[in-house]
Amino acid sequence: MSTFQSMPRLHSEMITKWTSPDFTIGILTGGPGCGKTSLIKHLFLIEPEKTCLLASTGNAVDRLVHVIDADTGLSAQICTLARATSSPNLIEQFKNWSFIVDESSMVSIEDAFNVLQVLLPKKLLFVGDINQLPCVNAVSILTTLCQIEKIPRVHLTENLRQLHVHKALCKNLAMMGTMNFIPIADEDSFILHEDTNPVKCALDIYSSLGGNAQMIAFTKAECQRLIDATVDTSAPKLSAPFRQFRIGDRVQCTRNHYQKKTGKLQVANGTMGIITKRGVEYDNGFQCKYGETYFTCSRCINVHQSQGNEFDVPGIIILSPWRAEEQLKIVYTAISRFKERVHIIYKNKRELANIFKGPFQHRVDHKIIDFFKT
């Protein structure tokens, strides 16, 4: 049986649409673990010499390079939207190619139209999870295009990666957005903690796990309190101007870092790493001295900082009330970052019910909808 025939039905459907001579623009959506990245790889390899993979962040590009370049050696055709639409050399190289845009929930209307106007794509596919949090103060192109019936869309529903590992976590993600939904507790993957002092509760869980966990808080103040309370005072401090860091601290890169001569992305904004005696060792294998990249402490991060990452360690998430139109999305985004057990901390059952109250709310740009309708 061929690879194409053995694929899930919806994956085959997307490939059929992509290879149709009439295809110009389309949408591929689905939740975490449904095979979006592996399908992107299949689509890319149909015509690799004339296809470019784009993403809004360097971290998402890094992940695509890891998946695609491991087998193809075509990392030069994977880059950020900003780089593809601003570099004269890349504009000339990629003009009239086919483009697949990953993590499109974080792609703004303006960035999407930059691709259309500057690169003049032959084919354009936006890929992402419409329930993920969009980029700050922007309307996602993905949620807007999903409102336009004439644009072909495939929505992946089968969980191929995570369902066998932690069913309760995946079931919670699948049910979020339905009316009157309350999270389903499961001691193996999804644990609920009611506590009037969420920060103290998070610290107790973090300590019980030996510090082998990733904390996520919704507010900057809570993040800083958790970072300050989990300093390993026995570890040596760095010298100025990095005195707030200690050997062994987990950190996160805050700016894309490119190799000066080639322009190749070496470490992306959002990539995690660790402070060592010699410098910073990032999780993608890149090593550098302290002052060569920008980084911040990552023992606790906010939800926007977590976007584009997937964590192999247990998660500790402190729920807090948020803007009503983004409340459910920010919780969904935080929970879906983890492959392991997730601890959810909330103050009381009433607050929990309000936070998970559905349905998802999607901001759209009605001018764009009218443009495509006409």
What would you note in describing this structure?
- There is one protein chain.
- With 374 residues, the protein is an alpha/beta fold.
- The protein has helices at residues 9-19, 36-46, 58-72, 81-84, 88-94, 109-119, 141-145, 167-175, 198-208, 220-229, 303-306, 327-335, 349-355, 366-373; strands at 25-30, 51-55, 78-80, 98-102, 123-128, 153-156, 190-194, 214-217, 250-253, 257-258, 265-267, 272-275, 280-282, 287-288, 295-297, 300-301, 315-318, 342-346.
- A six-stranded parallel sheet has the order 3-2-4-5-1-6. Strands 7-18-17-8-16 form a five-stranded parallel sheet.
- Strand 17 (315-318), helix 12 (327-335) and strand 18 (342-346) form a beta-alpha-beta unit.
- Helix 1 packs parallel to helix 2 (36-46).
- The longest helix has 15 residues, at 58-72.
- 40% of the residues are buried.
How many beta strands in the DSSP annotation? 18
Provide the spatial order of strands within the biggest beta sheet. 3-2-4-5-1-6
Alpha-carbon distance between the two ends: 43 Å
Name the poorly predicted regions: none
Largest sheet: 6 strands, parallel
Mean pLDDT comes to: 89
The residue fraction in helices comes out at 25-40%
User: Which radius of gyration do the C-alpha atoms yield?
Assistant: 21 Å
Which term fits the overall shape? Answer: globular
Number of helices, where a helix is a run of at least 4 consecutive DSSP H or I residues: 14
Approximately how much beta-strand content do the residues carry? 15-25%
Structural class: alpha/beta
